[in-house]
């Protein structure tokens, strides 16, 4: 197996790993803001690694240029969307989990 294929598969598998970890984080984290952070970071990193692995597989072709455009779009939109959703949640009154919340409703104790 050529070294380029090995590097490509390493990137593809590590990207898939980060995407799975992000999915687990969505299920396991205690509140909305932690879930948004976990999903935003692992989504961008995992998809970026997968696209880099696909770039190595594509070589210098038009497909590689399209993958680079997708990567750039992903790097711009994913963090921006995560920030906008978290800011909207905060503006609607949802507060971050601090460990003091015993009833789990996201509201501070009175």
Molecular structure report:
- It is a single chain.
- Helices cover 75% and strands 0% of the residues.
- By secondary structure, the chain is mainly alpha-helical.
- Helix 1 (3-28) runs antiparallel to helix 2 (32-58) and helix 2 runs antiparallel to helix 3 (62-91).
Low-confidence parts: none
User: How many β-strand runs?
Assistant: 0
**Overall mean confidence score, pLDDT:** 88
Distinct helical segment count: 3
Give the proportion of residues in helices. Answer: over 70%
End-to-end distance, in Å?
A: 63 Å
Whole-angstrom Rg: 18 Å
Largest sheet: none
Task: Please state the overall shape, judged from the principal axes of the Cα atoms.
Answer: elongated
Structural class: mainly alpha
Q: Can you tell me the number of structural domains?
A: 1
Secondary-structure element order, N to C: HHH
Tell me the strand percentage band.
Answer: under 5%
Please provide a brief summary of the model.
The protein is mainly alpha-helical and 110 residues long.
Properties at a glance:
110 residues, mainly alpha
List the helices and strands and how they pair.
Layout: H1 3-28, H2 32-58, H3 62-91
Helix pairs in contact: 1-2, 2-3
């Amino acid at each position: 197996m050529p070294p380029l294929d090995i590097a490509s598969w390493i990137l593809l598998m590590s990207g898939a790993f980060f995407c799975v970890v992000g999915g687990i984080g969505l299920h396991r984290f205690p509140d909305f803001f932690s879930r948004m952070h976990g999903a935003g970071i692992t989504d961008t990193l995992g998809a970026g690694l997968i696209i880099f692995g696909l770039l190595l597989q594509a070589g210098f072709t038009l497909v590689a240029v399209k993958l680079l455009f997708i990567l750039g779009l992903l790097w711009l939109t994913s963090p921006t969307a995560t920030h906008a959703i978290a800011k909207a949640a905060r503006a609607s009154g949802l507060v971050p989990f601090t460990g003091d919340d015993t009833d789990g409703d996201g509201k501070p104790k009175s």
